[in-house]
Structure formats: structure tokens, C-alpha cells
Amino acid sequence: EAGVAQSPRYKIIEKRQSVAFWCNPISGHATLYWYQQILGQGPKLLIQFQNNGVVDDSQLPKDRFSAERLKGVDSTLKIQPAKLEDSAVYLCASSPTGTDTQYFGPGTRLTVL
Amino acid sequence: GEDVEQSLFLSVREGDSSVINCTYTDSSSTYLYWYKQEPGAGLQLLTYIFSNMDMKQDQRLTVLLNKKDKHLSLRIADTQTGDSAIYFCAESTRSARQLTFGSGTQLTVLP
After folding, report:
1. pLDDT of B29-84, one tens digit each?
2. Of A6, A42, A105, B28, which is least packed with CB atoms within 10 Å of its CB?
């Protein structure tokens, strides 16, 4: 079974530029999560989708971050405009219906200069 | 509120046992998880325990849960250099199906 796929793996941008990350969850997993992991910290939830609907986006800085999961499969996370403090690893995870167990992708390491 | 705490560093000799500890605050947690993160990689699910269990063993891994003290531990037997990584403890909330992570414990295995 293929795992969670993410791209790109690395991205370097200048502040005020925009960036987008892509995630393809494990086939059949209804729930998809985006996390931000700052160096030296554990992952912090940004947004949770159930199929193509948003379950929780209370921690998403909506003035600059947006996410969508059209058709309930792939998802994109966008930052516009980026700030220096957005430098982090952005992790995508998915879980099957009815469980709490999450499976993570390899992450995208974002560096904002 | 939810809070998960771990010690930051642990260093052991190859072949010894490692014990990584975690405390949590949410008494309604349903599952507690251990994830492993190697440099430049995502989080790999190692094992998990249901909140009504005291212990779970899976090959070299033993998870102990003290629900009264809200204390979780992960014991790795016969620790190898390949076990060097950051280990995260996480708790799930009953209703939200979300995970709250600790800050991670950096395990270093010395030859």
C-alpha cells in the first residue's frame, strides 16, 4: 500500500512570496490533516478535512494560509504572502474512517529568506 | 487544556534498553501513540495503546500506561544505532480525532 505522498520535498522562497504544497493521502482515507512542525517542536495541527469538508481550521492563520481538498482526495496548502516565521516542515497525514491513527507523509521543508 | 510533555534528550549505549517517558493532561484521551522521526523524514507510527490497557508489547517495544498518573513510557530493548531518532508521544481526543504531540525526545545511541 502506498503511503502519504507530498511534494515538493524542499522549497526556498523569499518573504512576501507565495508557495503551495501538495498532498496525496493513502487511498481510501477519508480524513486528511496538515501540520506545521517548527524546528525542535512537535507537529501542530493547522487544518483537518473529512472528505472534502473542513472539520477544524481553528489554528490556521487565515490571513495568509489557505487549504483545500477538492473531490475529497488530494489537498493543497498555500501560504501567501510568506513570512520568515513560516519556515518549518509542513506535514500531511491521513487516517481511515473510524480511527484516530494517523499516517504521515515525508513532509515539505520550507525555508523563507 | 491539552498538554503533552517529554524530556528533550536521552543517550544510551548500544545493546542497552532505552526508556522514553511522556506525561499528558487530557483524561479523556482514547489512544496514546509513539511516533519516530529520523532526520529529514516524516513521522513513522511505531505503536499505540488504547487508554484502557496497561501494557502493550510489540517485538522490541514495550509501552506502559499509568492512567492514574497520566504517564506513558516507551521501552526499546536491545537499542541499536538505527534507533537514533526523535520520538514523539501523542494523545488523541475522543471527539475530535486529533492528535496532540509532545516536543519530542532525541534518542542518541552510542556505540
Report:
1. 789 999 999 998 899 999 999 988 999 999 999 999 999 999 999 999 999 999 99
2. B28
Contact yes or no for A45 and B41 at CB 8 A: no
Residues 12-71 of B with CB under 8 A from A: 30-31, 33, 35, 40-45, 48
The three grid cell numbers given for residue B84, joined into one nine-digit string = 537514533
pLDDT at A106 > cutoff 50? yes
Q: What is the pLDDT of residues B71-105, one digit of tens each?
A: 999 999 999 999 999 999 999 876 668 899 999 99
| CA dist B97 → A45, A63, A81, B52 (Å) | 12, 26, 30, 17
Locate the DSSP E strands across A1-102: 5-7, 10-13, 19-24, 31-37, 44-50, 53-56, 65-68, 75-79, 88-95
In the stretch 59-78 of chain A, residues with CB closer than 8 A to chain B read none
Q: Which amino acid is at A101?
A: T
Here the contacts of B61-66 (C-beta below 8 Å, separation 24 or greater) are B61/B34, B63/B32, B63/B34, B65/B32
